[in-house]
Amino acid sequence: MPIARDLTSKDLYANPYPVYRALRDDEPWAWSDGLGMWLVSRYEDVVFVDEHPEIFTAHQENSLAERTMGLVMIRTDGDAHRRLRSAVDGPLKRRNVRQQWSAGLTSHATELAGRLAEKPEFDLVSDFAAPFAAQALMRTAGLPDVTTGQVVEWSRAFIAGLANHDDDPAVWERAGRARTEVGELVREAVARVAAAPDHTVISAMVHAELAEPLTAEEIATQVRLMISGGFNEPWHALATLVWQLCEQPQLRDRVLADSEALDAAIEETMRWLTPVGAFPRQLAVDHTVGDVTLRAGDKLLALAASANRDDRKFAAPDAFDIDRPELSDHLAFSLGAHYCLGTYLAREQLRTAVPALFNSLTGLRVSSTPTLVGWMFRGPESVLMRHDAQGVKGAAQ
Ligand code: HEM
């Protein structure tokens, strides 16, 4: 019986990887009635999809993303996409992330870790990774006064809207509330930076030199996209990496002593537990692969998480191995026109937070195996940790 045909989200939520392996081996281009789309699972095919937007467009008529947040750049192609992307880009370039945001990330991570000194047991996700990623995102965006609780609620509301295939009115109401709240705060920020430009993403969008400048609503829409797609992923990745380093003390010591090893561990984290599991696309034209024909208008998911565990590309793909030769070939940030704009910010978050945490707390260890959930977005729900509660390392005792 075909593997994909009756597959639903529920079958993938707890652990999609066994299904992905079976798809790669037996049905690399598979139609799923349950999901209403094609599933593409092998590495080379996901690369092909990503590199051919003329066949597999990111634009979708009446997409759930547009209904939830407005016309986000990730659902546009061609000139419309270039206009939005070029306006957001500047503050998120590698050099600017290092110059403008890195020191603030280190001090925020150190401050959060310091607060945990008196708390011998804590949840890495809710007590550290989520507040850290929320503030990193909001400060870079240009909404520094927003609380972590607001970011959590907005991001959940938008993600629920993105997955609202059942058209649940309660989900639309919650997403609508988040959409309005973000819109109001962004409009205030737009007015502020119009008179006094700064280094934030909102300021970059306001002052972008475009033939057709962005409206306040277009700016708010791209900020909503950042909230739905730039918050969960860094905290998932951060929690995964800290957990893996606790599991492998030798690797932890190596990573803390050598920044190149830390960079390698960050890349391996992205591959091993890919935070954005799949990229949605739509067929712009008919396309035939072997004896399978995909029709114009069909929806498709390029399964990046599956591609990143494809043993046709990565040797022993289920192992967490920072010395693998194909380390940086992973597809966690995509690779086509929609290549993640937040890669440097995300990587810098991990580069600053991991040493801050381990260097601040002695005897840091995981106290129970984390539960991993999700497939479109996947990561640890919570990671319970303990430390020796001797106070902050290096502080007067
Ligand atoms: C570990 C962290 C992250 C991961 C794994 C990740 C992953 C991705 C992926 C896979 C895409 C492309 C999806 C597609 O092709 O359909 C994407 C796009 C995007 N990401 Fe990220 N992301 C991360 C962090 C961030 C952060 C921190 C920001 C905010 C600054 C951000 C902003 C964006 C934006 C604006 C796009 C759309 C780019 C475009 O359409 O041209 N991401 N991300």
UniProtKB/TrEMBL annotation:
Keywords: Heme, Iron, Metal-binding, Monooxygenase, Oxidoreductase
Coiled-coil region list: none
UniProt xrefs under Pfam families: p450 (PF00067)
Alphabetized InterPro entries for the sequence: Cyt_P450 (IPR001128), Cyt_P450_B (IPR002397), Cyt_P450_CS (IPR017972), Cyt_P450_sf (IPR036396)
GO MF annotations, alphabetized: heme binding; iron ion binding; monooxygenase activity; oxidoreductase activity, acting on paired donors, with incorporation or reduction of molecular oxygen
SUPFAM superfamilies given in the database record: Cytochrome P450
PANTHER family the record matches: CYTOCHROME P450 YJIB-RELATED (PTHR46696:SF1), P450, PUTATIVE (EUROFUNG)-RELATED (PTHR46696)
Protein name: Cytochrome
UniProt source species: Streptomyces dysideae
